[in-house]
Amino acid sequence: MPDPATVTGSLPVTHPAQSAGPADATAELIAELTTHHLTIAVAESLTGGLLVAELVRIPGASVVVRGGVVAYDTALKRSLLHVDSSVLNVHGPVHADVAKQMAGGVRTLLAVNGVRADIGVSTTGVAGPGPDGGHPAGTVFIGLSKGTGSWAVPLHLHGDRGEIRAETVSQAIDAVRALIAQGDAE
User: Fold this and answer.
1) pLDDT for the residue numbered 183
2) N or C end of the chain: which has fewer CB within 10 A?
3) DSSP letter string, 87-129
4) pLDDT tens for residues 91-127?
5) At what angle do helices 25-35 and 161-185 cross, to 10 degrees?
6) Cα distances (Å, whole numbers) of residue 55 to 11, 40, 86
7) Please, which residues bridge with residue 154 across strands?
8) Beta 40-44 vs 65-70: how paired, if at all?
């Protein structure tokens, strides 16, 4: 499991160019989740549903994907996903702690028969075209939650709004795969 004592609690992200596996990282993720009998829940802001759509693109995803929540409005991050009001008031919605709390909150929100999802993943940030809340376009945080831990992967992406959103989805897939791989290494 990742070391929660790291400065941002971030995980190393495996980039497609570094992996030796098949070209479809999403299909690999669904296969890994299935093999490990893990479920996943998704909370999205800047990706607006693109991440969960990418996951369910793969046949058989219904075995492991609990669902997704688009909490685009900051108030929904607080009310649905239980992101701490003080964090939102101090930092705004684009922050590592917000991403981590979104990932943890969606695991509970999308519990089935009282059982939380095994993994939560979230996206929050600024897709552009311009800055928002003092953050430049391309400032993104991917949140991850598994077991009792939570982590944030900070990203500084470049491109237009569509490219930033698409790259966030790709990076989120890679981050969840890295989280699962680290669990295997324990």
Assistant:
1) 81
2) C
3) HHHHH-SSSHHHHHHHHHHHHHHT-BTTB--SEEEEEEE--SS
4) 999 999 999 999 999 999 999 999 999 999 999 999 9
5) 30
6) 20, 10, 32
7) 141
8) parallel
